Amino acid sequence: MTRHFLALHDYNEIELYGMLTLARELKAKQKQGTAHRLLEGKTVALIFEKASTRTRVSFEVGVFQLGGHGLFMSSGTSQMGRGEPIKDSARVMSRYCDGVMIRTFGQEIVEEFARYSSIPVINGLTDLFHPCQIMADLLTVIEYKHTYEGLTFAWVGDGNNMANTWIEAAAIFGFDLKLACPQGYEPDAAVLAWAQAQAPGRIQLTTDPKVAVQDADVINTDVWASMGQESEQKEREQAFAGYCLDDALLALAKPDCIVLHCLPAHRGEEISDSVIEGRNSVVWDEAENRLHIQKAIMATLIK
Ligand code: CP
Ligand code: NVA
Q: Are residues 155 and 93 in the same domain?
């Protein structure tokens, strides 16, 4: 059976932990210069309907390091941008490639692609979820804290694709997550309800960033206006006043807390320059870990 990677909730903790372990092994091999060509001769299509730096580069480099070929495609330069049905694209791509990563808008687009695809489909970000990123973030947490168990995670900002995926991660891995989101910018209600049913009491929602970061071990934030929401930038700047992760807010967390940001960051909006450049920030390791975890995800899924 073809398994896809569309959302964390399709996997249990043991399966996801297996990918994190493989990522650590592949990272060590890459650093040592040891061959790990687990996708020798395989082609992975990389379809982008939104902009990207990290996702594109880490997938392309990752497939290459695994001995395969990454095929970049954008909606604007393929027939998908001219309205060729998703289900037709999925069946055609399945005849040429061994796997496909898609970055797009609605989660239903990756789900439809996967329904008609006979090759594994990986979600490279939708409006609802960003599962590869949260796996990279967890890899980073494990590197710095040696575990995720017993840690308190904080989210400060928009209830967006990143927040939704953290909520799923908290339920699956079983850690405490406190999210501070302004009224009207809460995470997806269905995702929250699912996670709260899975892990009662683990996930707390507040409008006060101070409550969320108090004694946190891991703090995560993200842009206030995600891709596709650019026209809302001004009203969001007003709604998110007081949500900047700055030194004053960071001082409420544990002194050895780590700060994550998936990047790109808007310094002076959701995060201050002093915090992203400061001693608690691990954002460059986090960005690097996209490469290692995605290699593990591809190597697990693509046979
Ligand atoms: N974090 C992340 O997904 O970055 P890109 O948008 O640059 O791919
Ligand atoms: N929430 C952001 C993440 C970018 C990597 C967006 O969707 O634009």
A: no
